[in-house]
Amino acid sequence: MIAARGSMEPVPAFYPGCSLDGLGTPYEVSTQRVLSHLGLHLDRIVDYNCCGATEVKSLSQDVSIALPSRNLSLARSAGHHQVVAACSGCVYSLARAHSVMNEDGKTRQRVNELLTRGGAPPYDGGAAVQHVLEFIYQRAGPDGVRAAVRHPLAGITVAPYYGCLYTRPKCYTGVGKTAGTDNPEHPHFLDELLVACGARVVEDFSAKTVCCGGGHALSDLEVSVAFCASILNEAQQAGADIIATICPLGQVNIENHLDRVRAAYGEGVVRPAAYFTQLMCLAFGSSLREARLADNFTRPDRLFRSRGFT
Amino acid sequence: MPIVERSLVEVDRTETLVLDGVDVSGDWNAFLRPRVVTDLDSKIVDWVKTQPFGETISRCWQCGTCTASCCMHSDYGMSEFNPRRFIYLAQIGDEKELRLHSDALWRCISCNKCVERCPKGVKVEEVVHAIGRYLRATGAAPESPADRFDRAYTENLLDRGILDEAALYRTYEREEGRQLPLRELVRTGFRLLTTGRLRTGPLAHRTRGWRKMRSVLRAQLQVDEAKAASGGRK
Q1: Which residues of B, range 121-140, sit inside 8 Å of A by Cβ?
Q2: What was the pLDDT predicted at B5?
Q3: Is there a domain that residue A140 lies in?
Q4: pLDDT value of position A266
Q5: Are residues A73 and A173 in the same domain?
Q6: Closest residue, chain B, to A225 (C-alpha)
Q7: Chain B residues with CB inside 8 Å of A216's CB?
Q8: Torsion angle (degrees, nearest 10) of CA B194, B197, B203, B208
Q9: Considering only CB atoms, which chain B residues are within 8 Å of A228?
Q10: Same domain, yes or no, for A113 and A168?
């Protein structure tokens, strides 16, 4: 029934971005599993390029718009009206480019000229951008997820970490402005999906939408470590067993700084972190290996093994 | 009514006069010098307005929502990082004061809470970055670690179209003059490679047909960087 519901609507394109093809491989693998469990389908963009995140725009506006626009125009050439990305950084930069290309005629002209000269089709502004979390929520919803659960995450307390760029800013993403989207100040889609998977979600997780400092993970180490520590600390205070992430930058940043956090704040604050799709996979009956949980440096597989998951 | 602020009275308006034996000398017909502040310097604002979304700086009404929301200011607790104040200093053109904040200015981590919440639609994050770039372009502030990272990142991704994270890490750390922690690298590198999470060097992904795009975008990057540098000197 869910499959029928999914197949009636147009199939959006999937933008993996560099992170899902590299450090975030467990995220992509688990996302594809979740989608197929729910009978949803996304078409992967072939020969995509890096979106430039928040780095390129401080060097050149036109290049920072052209990079994501190339991906959006590839999706348009394949006949899609919607692009879904799993990385919040990618969502931000794709949505930013989409909004500029629609609103600023002069930039559109310049960027399209760059694209044409570089051998890519010009972008017509017709591909809306969405985070994969929102896509799953809108297409399957908590009810659809509940129906697909085979192995509920009973007894697992999760801290849902949304991070910074999932909804922000609404002028680009449209989140909170258009119907059926999340609340940018108090996001709850991840909470609801995890509850549908049978997990308990902590109520007062104040670091929910705090930045992880991932953009300055190398250039401003001290700040970046402090943010990761505060996320882990808040999760511990709230009584969470594990942190669910929705962005490879947040996940990798927490993994990367784990030793430094441990050294500065002690073993007590350390919690494993996993992509929300990995947790959903487990709930849908995948094994720990299939959900790629042992791939994460924070080793969430150990937690689940001790709770009877295999 | 006596005029207290003597410095504002034009001297030649002061008259000495005795009428019917009464001395009525004073500031008759005194005009006050105009008190419009004229030493505001619009050069920073003018430059910021040439930058992407920089024109939104003029909408700011100094409510401070950005600063109150700011991850760096409120969560990390760096009180010196104050976007409202950066915008104010740019608006009055106080380059001297801004220069004192040059080590704070680059620390914005682009979490976009300010842009999300600004009631006037100022793209605070972009404006703050533009103010930082102004200081760098005029030579008033040294290049920051974030500037160097942005450049290393851009060059890395333009090379193949897809980022090679390990190569970026190596280049950037070397540029900052930091020693690579070899033992740690071998350990994490091994784990990443065996779990298929690391694609670097010959294994790295590349975008097919990227070469043409690369040369177009590289040329554009050079044009824009030269423009930013010269705009600051004006």
Answers
A1: 121, 123, 126, 129, 133
A2: 67
A3: no
A4: 87
A5: no
A6: B76
A7: 107, 109, 146, 149
A8: 150
A9: none
A10: no
- For chain A, residues with pLDDT lower than 50 are 1-6
Residue A82 DSSP symbol: E
Residues 194-213 of B with CB under 8 A from A: 195-199, 205, 207-210, 212-213
- Whether residues B150 and A55 touch (CB distance < 8 A) is answered with yes
Are residue A300 and residue A222 in the same domain, yes or no? yes
Interval A97-128: pLDDT, tens: 999 999 999 999 999 999 999 999 999 999 99
Count how many domains chain A has.
Answer: 2
| Full residue range of the structural domain in which residue A126 is found | 2-131
Same domain, A35 and A118: yes
- Overall pTM > 0.80: yes
- Show the tokens assigned to B73: 């200011």
Q: Which of A65, A100, A131 is the last residue of a domain?
A: A131
Q: Which two tokens stand for residue A197?
A: 């998977």
**What mean pLDDT is predicted for residues B198-225?**
91
Is the Cβ pair B163, A18 closer than 8 Å? Answer: yes
* C-beta atoms of A220 and B146 within 8 A: yes
Which strands make up the sheet holding A128-131, listed edge to edge?
A: A43-44, A13-15, A82-85, A128-131
Name, in order, each residue with C-beta under 8 angstroms of A189's C-beta and a sequence gap of 6 or more: A133, A134, A137, A182
B153, A56: Cβ pair inside 8 Å? yes
